[in-house]
Structure formats: C-alpha cells, structure tokens
Amino acid sequence: MSKHNVDLLERHRETLDGAIAAIHGRHHHTPFPESPSRSVYGEDAAARGRAAFEAHLGRDFPLEGPGDRGRVTTERSPYGVRLDVSYPRADVDALLTASETALHEWRRVPLPVRTGVALEILARLNRRSFEMGHAVQHTSGQSFVMAFQAGGPHAQDRGLEAVAHAHDMIERSTGEATWVKPRRRGEPITMAKRFTARSRGVGLVIGCATFPTWNSYPALFADLVTGNTVIVKPHPGAVLPLAITVAVARDVLREQGLNPDVVLLAAEEHDDRIAGVLALRPEVRVVDFTGSTEFGDWLEANARQAFVSTEKAGVNTVVVDSTDAYRAMLANLAHAMSLYSGQMCTTPQNVYVPTGGVPTDEGHKSADTFAADLAGAVAELAADPARRVGVLGALVDARVRDRVDGATDLGRVLLASTAPEHPEFPEALVRTPAVIGLDADRREVYGREHFGPISFVITTADTARSLHLMRETIIERGAITAAVYSTDEDVVESAEEAALDAGVNLSINLTQDVFVNQSAAFSDYHGSGANPAATSSLTDPRFVAGRFDLVQSRRHV
Length: 557
Hints:
This protein has helices at 3-11, 13-25, 38-41, 45-56, 92-106, 111-127, 129-140, 144-151, 153-173, 217-225, 240-255, 274-280, 293-302, 326-338, 367-383, 385-392, 398-405, 443-446, 463-477, 489-502, 541-545, and strands spanning 71-72, 87-88, 175-181, 189-199, 202-206, 229-233, 263-265, 284-290, 307-311, 317-320, 350-354, 358-360, 363-365, 412-415, 434-439, 454-460, 481-485, 505-508, 548-556. By secondary structure, the protein is α/β, with parallel strands linked by helices. The protein folds into two domains: 3-31 and 45-173 and 200-312 and 536-548, 3-Layer(aba) Sandwich (Aldehyde Dehydrogenase, Chain A, domain 1); 317-508, 3-Layer(aba) Sandwich (Aldehyde Dehydrogenase, Chain A, domain 2), CATH 3.40.309.10. α1 (3-11) packs across α6 (111-127), α6 crosses α11 (240-255) and α9 packs parallel to α10 (217-225). It starts with a helix and ends with a strand.
C-alpha cells in the first residue's frame, strides 16, 4: 500500500479516537452535526444539496457495475414527486464474481487502510447530507428534517460506531506476541505468535424502504473494516440513498488505487427477488436484513453458510402504572406514537393501563379518561399543520394507508385517522394516527404488529397483569422497545425484571425531549438481540465479531 493510503487514517485519526472513546464510555458523542443549519454546513449547502438531488431525477444514475441487464426504475415518492431515476439491473453471477475478485485483495489490505477508507467515505457522505436528506425524504416518506437527520448525520454516526467497534476489536485481538512458559529444569519455552483477523467473505446488505441508510450503514461499514466486500441490495422503493452511498464508496476506493468492486449495488425490479437468491449463494458469508418477520425468519433458517443478522417486526409496549407528570407523559407518548406516522421499528403500539385507572399529579384518572386524554394529545399534535408536517411525514406505500384506513374495524375508536392535505406536496400520502381501545382479551389483535400509525390502549386487571402481557407478547412476537411509567420503585423494578426476561430494552418515565423511538449512537444498543425482533443489536460486539475469524500462527524462538 502506498503512504497515501495510510495517511487517510491519519487524516481522520481524531474522528476515530473520539468514536472509540465514546463506545467505551457510552457517552453522548457525534462528529456529524444533526442540525441542517447554514452556520454548520455552509451558507449554500442547502441549495447545493437540493440541486444535487434534483439533478438525479428523470436520469440514469451514474454508476457502472459488472454485468449488463438493462436498467430498472422502481421508486415512487410518497410525496407524489416524479423521481424516474434508473439504475443498472443486477446480474447475480456477475456481481458475485466481481465481489469475490475484489475480496482477494481487500481482505489483505491492512486494517489502518481499510479503516481510513471507511472514515473517508463517511466524511464525504456527511458533506452530501442535504442531498441525502432529499433522497431519503422522497423514497421513505420522512419529513425533510427527519430525513436529513436519520438519513444523514444519525446514519453516519451509526456507521462510524461500527467502524470504531470493528477497528478497536481487531486491533486489540491481533498482532504479535512472545509467549514464555517457565520450566522447572532447563530454559523456558519461548514462542512467537501472530494473530490475524480473517474476513468471512462477501457481505450482503439488504436495505429497507423506511430507513435505507440508518439501518444499512452499521452492516456496510462493519463489513468494510473487517475485510469483507459488500453487495448492497436496496429496497426497490428506496434505491437512491444507497446508490449515492455506493457511488461515494467506489469513488474513494478507486482514488486509493483499490478495486471499486469492494462495494457494489444490486438494484432490481420489484418481482426479481434477488435477495433470496444472493443470500443462499455459497460465496455470500455475511447477510444483514431489515424488514418483514417472514423473510427474516426464512433467512435465518436457510442462509446456513452465512453469519445472519436480522431486524424484524415486533410489538413495542408501554405500561402505564402512575405518573407525577401527567401532561408531559401524554405529550411524550403522543409524539412517540405519531413520529414518522408510526413507521419506525421502535414506535410504541400497545399501551397497557389498569382498569382501575392511574394515580397522577392531577389526581386519579380512570382508564377511560386516560385513554381519551392520550387520544386527545395525539389529535392536538396532528391538528397543528406545522407540527403535523414535521412529525408525520408521509406513508411509505399504499399498504400502510390501507391498514390505517381499516383500523376502525379493530376495536373501540378513540381517535379516527384523517387524511389532511400536505401544504407543499398536494399528492402526498398522509394519514393522522388512529388510536383504538381494546380489552386485554383481544390478544389476537394487539398480539401482532400493525405497521403504521395505529396504536392500542389496552385495559388490564392491574399493572402486574400489564407487565405479564408485555413479557409474553414480546417473548412470542418480539419488540425493539418497551417503556414504563410509574412513581413506585417496586413497579419499576418489576418492569425491569420483565424486560430482562423478555430481552427488550426499557425506557422509564420519559417526559422530556427523549422518546422511546430514539436510539443514541455510541451509547444505546438498537435492539437487544434477545427476542424474536432482532438476532443482534446494531453495533454490539456480536454484530461485529460475526464478520471475521481469528487465525494464529506460532513458532519456537
């Protein structure tokens, strides 16, 4: 490798050192500002980013790749904007051949060079955050500010977190050592040992439609630093954000004199279904997937040759026992239930409340009053046009629309969904949240995920029964998040025990500007990997360690 390659890491040394310190300390950290502010990103950054996004529309995306099966155009903006961006249609055999060829070189590239390449890719992606924000907005349906943050700096944080874990883990586990064993007679036995990290092979990253970069970057960057090549298979409805990412990665690799086929894009028609084909190929040794339970379960059962990491559907739960901040609790829950129209894997769906009601700082609230007040808080948020635009965004596709439109058949309607017009995009697919009341015996309804802006207020015999149902439904169907509200430390302790038993991360008494949906990079583990919703937490040690093996050699000195 040239000195220029090694200098790439030194250019970003401060970024890497800060990230490694953060994963050890689990404190707040980000080198990528989340505010789409002119003072942060430059006076003309917003205009340049929008122009860069618009320059993609109606054109062939400038990305070469192995094989030639024509072009695909599959995206439709949830806001009604015509995208018409076309991409090279993936050829499975050509992609795998190219990725394996690149692998032979990439896995032998020294760790500092691989890490430097990954850090340079992230730095360039950060400079294109406004462009990425528009790309994520018009493929996922997020509002622009959310798309800028989640698709740009927050996704970059998660990618950097993966880089830090991978670099730190390999650096601490590899290298050379002298081993000396004393003997009672004669000289000690002395051996020289060398420990080397060996990458698994070709990695397959299967993207989702709702968070195309946030959910893909941990796998993409963990694969790169651990020495695996990567085939990025975007959801047909959200190709542009990952096409931009792949293009940036290939530019950096090429500039460093490395094979750009280390990172490849696998775009497809809606009915090509190449993810399942790629996942079973023996060349593919790492598979990452975010999406439906059915396909995630299929991958886990069938991609036996690979390390498989999945994030699937779940039933996120809130247990309400008591509170000393009633209005703040309602506002926090309403925001969490409404954010991105409930299309987050962390959105609370089931809210359990005792039939006997809830003690609060405003006096005792009956179960019916609580349910009405929570529905009222959601309605108040959705009624404010400015807040509605920023919080709800748009529905990712018609299936979510049909689901929320049919929510009135599920139980007692506490709040019906409406279809307000978006002030900027008249064709946007917008629905306000529906809140449905249920009794605890309606488990066939609330015991499964209803993806989208649908939440249930479920009356139970008491808080103990609420915690029991939380535990059982999560063990059975999985969850990424759970929450409890209580002023009783014994109840909080019982909730922590139930969450530990179910294997779900728990938030307690959230009333400020932190919501159960949110996961802080470098500090929070996104998911636990301990229940059916996910096989590992993003960027936890298992998530990274499964991407490489340790091989040693030893000799007498």
